[in-house]
Write a structure and sequence with these properties.
Elements: H1 16-23, E1 28-33, H2 40-53, E2 58-62, H3 63-67, H4 78-97, E3 101-105, H5 111-121, E4 126-132, H6 135-141, H7 146-151, E5 173-176, H8 182-193
Helix pairs in contact: 2-8, 4-5
Length: 199
């Protein structure tokens, strides 16, 4: 059996606008992208807590969390990284159709991978936040101890050390975590995001 034999029932489902009306919010897919240690997960968690505390219905998908479950069969080659994000984008698509605000925290190291997200979800549904910090700063932070291992060749295909990170040419917002506090950055993100969530 192949995909030609499938009969999706999308037309029979309660539609996105009905779900958004029930939840009193507009659904959107927010993507925090950047190097490991740039501050993506910290800001994503801060944002979800803020939205939750203000009555919004959210889902947070984080790179490490997804890789210990849904995508535990994938490694860190470019092909596996691409498949990792493809699957996550497809999950986003389902969650958006259910009226939810989806917050994502993933490295997304190449322009091709980022374009894949936009192709799957549609540009109008995606808000990309480039969390910017220099490689030197990320190495100094080394929150998870990964950079030390990558520099010592204990981890292969590590973005920024033995694998590429292409600085994005397209994003909706840039957050420079070297120059501003978490609170200042969160305030900036909220001021940009909040109007997009209103029904």
């Amino acid at each position: 059996m192949n995909s030609n034999h499938l009969r999706p029932i999308f037309s029979n489902l309660i539609n996105r606008s009905q779900k958004e009306k029930l939840l009193s919010q507009k659904s959107i897919s927010i993507w925090f992208i950047g190097l490991s240690g740039s501050g993506k997960s910290t800001l994503a968690v801060y944002l979800e807590h803020y939205l939750f505390d203000n009555g919004y219905k959210t889902v947070l998908l984080d790179g490490d969390n997804v890789r210990i479950g849904l995508n535990k069969d994938l490694g860190f080659s470019l092909n596996d990284r691409t498949e990792n994000i493809r699957r996550v984008a497809e999950i986003n698509k389902i969650l958006l159709q259910n009226g939810l605000i989806v917050i994502n925290s993933f490295v997304c190291p190449t322009e091709i991978i980022r374009k894949l997200v936009i192709d799957i979800l549609g540009k109008e549904n995606v808000y990309i936040i480039f969390v910017k910090a220099s490689l030197e700063t990320c190495i100094k932070r080394d929150v998870k101890g990964f950079y030390k291992k990558a520099i010592n060749n204990e981890i292969k295909n590590f973005t920024g050390i033995s694998d590429v990170f292409e600085e994005p040419t397209y994003y909706n917002l840039v957050i420079e975590t070297e120059n501003f506090t978490k609170e200042e950055n969160l305030a900036k993100i909220i001021s940009e995001i909040f109007p997009k969530l209103q029904p």
